Write a sequence for this structure.
């Protein structure tokens, strides 16, 4: 009988879980013997055995995942609740606002623009408002007609003429009455003064227009010759300023350069 021809389709080994490893030559021998006996069922079983015994090792195992180190987060400084984390310098008493260059009142004295002044009897210092327009020193003189106020500033720029003209615009004088202008010199310092009585429209520490004050006496003085220029405003009801003026002038006459 003529033997059927078979084509070799693979050269790799086959593996059976029960019989171990089967070589290609052994597989061909099994197929030839099965065909000679005409055992179709046996051939199918052998083919299934051979097919199930293919050496399929499968894909290589996946490498274990590497631990991923999280990105470093910059350490932020701790900030106390309710704060911005920004430290702001404290404003010295009497030293903030337009009157920079002064100091707090100590032992009945205060400094403004490099000048030292002594507070006379009858005057009491008041804490200036915290504002760019607040004075360095704010003195009050009590009177039955009201309160006279002396405000001291040390503002660079503007000069004498600009300050005098600005003050003049703030007071509406009665018809036919003009402001009085005088000049004096004390301890090597020049003082230019304007004195007028009328309706005064000043400014609040916040820089806004203050309510109009009638029958108000306004005495403004620009002091030159010290370390810094100094501006002084004495304002209040006419009777109160009239009563406070002598001690006010005495205070200015005694100012010194420390």
């Amino acid at each position: 009988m003529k033997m059927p021809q078979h084509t070799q389709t693979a050269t790799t080994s086959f593996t059976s879980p029960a019989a171990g490893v089967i070589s290609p030559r052994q597989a061909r021998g099994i197929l030839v013997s099965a065909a000679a006996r005409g055992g179709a069922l046996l051939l199918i079983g052998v083919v299934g055995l051979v097919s199930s015994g293919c050496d399929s090792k499968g894909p290589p195992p996946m490498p274990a995942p590497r631990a991923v180190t999280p990105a470093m987060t910059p350490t932020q400084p701790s900030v106390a609740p309710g704060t911005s984390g920004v430290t702001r310098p404290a404003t010295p008493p009497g030293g903030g606002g337009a009157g920079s260059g002064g100091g707090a009142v100590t032992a009945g004295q205060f400094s403004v623009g490099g000048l030292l002044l002594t507070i006379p009897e009858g005057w009491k210092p008041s804490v200036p408002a915290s504002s760019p327009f607040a004075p360095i020193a704010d003195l009050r003189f009590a009177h039955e007609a009201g309160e006279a106020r002396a405000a001291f500033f040390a503002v660079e720029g503007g000069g004498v003429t600009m300050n005098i003209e600005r003050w003049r615009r703030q007071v509406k004088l009665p018809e036919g009455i003009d402001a009085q202008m005088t000049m004096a010199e004390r301890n090597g310092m020049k003082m230019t003064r304007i004195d007028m009585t009328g309706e005064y429209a000043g400014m609040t520490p916040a820089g806004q227009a203050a309510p109009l004050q009638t029958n108000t006496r306004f005495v403004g003085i620009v002091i030159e010759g010290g370390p810094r220029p100094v501006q002084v405003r004495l304002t209040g009801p006419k009777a109160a300023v009239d009563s406070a003026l002598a001690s006010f002038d005495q205070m200015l006459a005694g100012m010194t350069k420390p």
Observations:
- Helices lie at 24-37, 40-52, 159-170, 238-253.
